[in-house]
Amino acid sequence: MALTETLQFAGTMFSGAMRIAIPICFGALGSTICERAGIVNIGIEGMMLAGSFGGVVGALVTGSPWIGLLFAMVAGMLFSLLHGVLTIHYGTGHIISGLGVNLLASGVTTVLLVAIWQNRGKSEMVGTLPTIELTFLKKIPFIGQAFGSFSPLFLLLLAAVALLWVFLYKTTFGLRARIVGESPQTADAAGISVPKMQYICVLLCGLLCGLGGAYLSIGDIGMFSRDMVAGRGYIAMAVTIFGAWNPIGALGGGLLFGLAQSLQFRLQQSGIPVQLIQMLPYVITILVLLLVRRKGGGPAAAGKTFDREKH
Amino acid sequence: MDFVQMRGITKIFGKVVANDRVDFSVKKGEIHSLLGENGAGKTTLMRMLYGMSVPDEGSIILNGSPVTLKSPSSAIEQGISMVHQHFMLADPMTVTENIVLGYEPRKGPFFDRKKAEQQVAELSARYGLQIDPKATVGDLSVGNKQRVEILKALYRKCDLLILDEPTAVLTPLEVKDLFAVLRSLKEDGKTIIIITHKLKEILEISDRVTILRAGKLITTKNTAETDAAELARLMVGRQVQFEVQGAKPVAADAPVLLEVKDAELRRRGMQLLSGLSLQVHAGEIFGICGVEGNGQTEIIEAITGIGQLSAGQVLLNGQPVHKPTPTKMADRGLAHIPEDRGLRGLVADFSIRDNSILGYQRSRRFSRRGVLDKKAIEMHTRQIVSDYRVKVGSIDDTAASLSGGNQQKVVIGRALSQDPDVIIAAQPTRGVDIGAIEYIHQKLIEMKNAGKAILLISAELDEVLGLSDQVGVLYRGRIVATGAPADFDEQTLGLLMTGYHKDTEKEERPCLETLHSAFAKS
Questions:
Q1: Quick check: A185 contacting B, CB < 8 Å?
Q2: Which end of chain B has fewer CB atoms < 10 Å from its terminal CB, N or C?
Q3: A196 — contact with chain B (CB < 8 Å)?
Q4: Which residue of B has its CA nearest to A179?
Q5: Parent domain of A272
Q6: Is A135 part of a structural domain of the chain?
Q7: Could you tell me if A45 lies within 8 Å of chain B, comparing CB atoms?
Q8: For B65, what's the count of Cα atoms within 13 Å in the CB-facing half-sphere?
Q9: CATH code, residues B334-419
Q10: Cβ separation B47–A296 shorter than 8 A
Q11: Which residues touch B147 (CB under 8 Å, ≥6 apart)?
């Protein structure tokens, strides 16, 4: 049956796309909430890396990958707190601070790698989060391959998307956060504490990035390797823009990138030079960003330091 | 008893003393004007009353008891609200979201949008401030944005409303509406403070007026017991000349230096200029009257080479200019005072020194083989600063650090120091205080007397009529009437500007509504 085979193939592709999309979507969600509150965060990469490392350490120390997940969130938040203090409290340029976070995260994790495992490249293996198996789906073409087994972090991602969307558009807190990113002066004049809102959003970003990073280590291969985020944090930032600073857009954008990546793996056997095919996801990202020109272009005050006394 | 008392308020920014032991008090239920030139410290004083900055010295007493206003929220709790000159609104959000911000009605953790919209609708009906609660703020006209700001204050149940330069951005019709609203608020028992430097408005709306000059309190007066001349003198610190003097008549054989022939401009299906023609002679000021949005910007852009015409010609010194660009026009002796100095006049974050040569940086006076001549530029800047009495700390300060009037002096000084033949002066005194206006007018007259041709475009009718030798009335992209200022009375001019024209009576006769919408749009 050709149809069944095609469906099965599509299902496998989708499942692959999902696995690639999970960390990127978490990063994009973090970046979305952060930029909505006016803080540009190119430190996503570093915060994810901290999450990957924290996850492995947590799993090693406690023996439970679930507690590793908690460690990952805390690690991501620590680095986001640093970004927050630098940009919100000290008014450092957001790009500079984000770059600093990335370099620091790369350095700190490498040093700790040597300190703990005496290895510059990778950690020892730890337990991974168990995958969720839905055996009763396995027989159905497409559905079976796509949703038959998946990481619990995928469920967490869907929950995070929904929660964040409700938070941003349905709660007073979200309204305030969005206004802070759009016009901090307006928020300030309305008696809203701009720094408080920004700290909360930056920390939330760190938490989400930590989860994204944790997927790469304890959600997938069960170990940490040096600089294992490998640019996914930057892809997440592109996905943020593509998703028009909307959590649902971030999910869609991440999945699209995942599909492109998944397609790329398949096409590597087709005889076309591998180097060309490996470019595919990135070319698609750039093309989509070029084609989908959003009006407005994001929160107006993103990246600008707010200072009440300056007017 | 006084509702608000500010006692001995001092505020220092770096080396600048913005407020120097200022005493200021307001009675319950009055409209009180705070008058002063740009940089006199009016806004600084009011920002402290609204908790946006904290006084270095002095105390604030509200209803008899001293208060500490550390942040806007503490001021809002005390019933104080402020409408800022640059509106504090988030453009992509709706009217309702902007109004209820910080005090949102909620159901649990959720924002109760329905209730909020209902409250806003009720409020706007009650005070006659019509507005659609669901509209996006970015789509509103400036006048309507201001309504949103006032509604925001009312939503927070303010007793004291501070308005910072509320009329600066409004059309005459919108000003009328605003004043009607303010009067009804006063009847409702609200106390209102208006920051302004427009004398006419003070005399029209306020009960009392307090004058600040250079950060110091000059005096407080009952409006009924004063007049424009006295207020101007108190504000500037010397006698102010309202009338322009010393203008020489245009010579009978003066050559035409600037000519526009049959200018046509269509853009996105809109006819922006339709057969506009005008001539400006040497030693003449040609003023353009018109409701904004009738082609002023487009004709300025065409003459200065920023924009292009669909058809028609621009002639300088009798020579047609082929495909004008700003550089080409400047090289041929055209100087441009742009209508929006923030947009086209200055780079706010650049130093005054750099701004003083902007657009002329390629000139041999300022550079050799692409390398800037620091000494020559410094001399040039110092010349402008002294010739135009620009108040600066250092010429290396940013343009943004100057007050509006001083910024405009830099722009005008830069344009006029190039010894041009033709000057395009667009809104030369917009957002500039009386002392500087007087000075800028005097400079324009000097240029005219020196034989320059000046095209003056201004939204201030008094300015156009006072300075010009000839005026042209601009309506829908063409000049519908020209003559000496004395040929028009105010009423005729008003009718011409809104399309009632003898010659066009048969073909187009706009009804009163289009007349109103023409005002509203501008």
A1: yes
A2: N
A3: no
A4: B90
A5: 18-127+152-291
A6: no
A7: no
A8: 2
A9: 3.40.50.300
A10: no
A11: B124, B129, B130, B131, B181
